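Next up, sample data.

:::
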Amino acid sequence: MYRTRVGYTGGEKKFPTYHSLGNHTEALQIDFDADVIAFEDVVEFFWNNHNPLRNGISRQYMAAVWYHDESQREIIENTREIVARKFGAKVQTPVLPLEVFYLAEGYHQKYRLQQQSSLMKQFARMYSDASGFVDSTAAARLNGFLYGYGSRELFDRETDGYGIPADELLQAISFRESSDTSETCSNGHCSI
């Protein structure tokens, strides 16, 4: 994945904001290179990293997956059926057509990374405007590491491309003993 951005989708209000959301849902947009990772793998990651058996607590915070075209819809629906069989329960996660994605405000972008003031100083030197930071592959990757996704081996392979000294990054990032971030579900209950 080379870019992630948070925003709002699925509702009717034009140009929603966090404080004026209408009936939109907070969503994550993922851009990826299909020559490096298949769409099926991105969808599998989605299914493995949320509780597909639970209804969302509200429209704003519901888990959903949006598709761009019929091919994506079919892949998502097929994997949804596999998830339902695996857990022996109905998957509650809606599969919806994407109509428009509105980018969220800057303070929502790369949220965990923005909590790291020393790293943000480095990004401020790299990008003269917020859109460069939001669209940055390095920022997306590092934000993921800060949330506990990705292995130490992957970090070591990519570190030189981040533009920030590895020792400074390692002051902020800790790695899980296992890179497995999937949930374990049974009887309608899941834990990560």
About this structure: The chain has two domains: 3-104, 109-172.
